Amino acid sequence: MSALRTLRLVGLLEGVSFLVLLLVAMPLKYMAGLPIAVRIVGSLHGLLFLMFVSTLFRTATERQWPLRRSLLAFGASLVPGGTFVLDRALRRELADAVGHG
Question: Topology with regard to the membrane (predicted)?
Answer without folding.
Answer: Multi-pass membrane protein
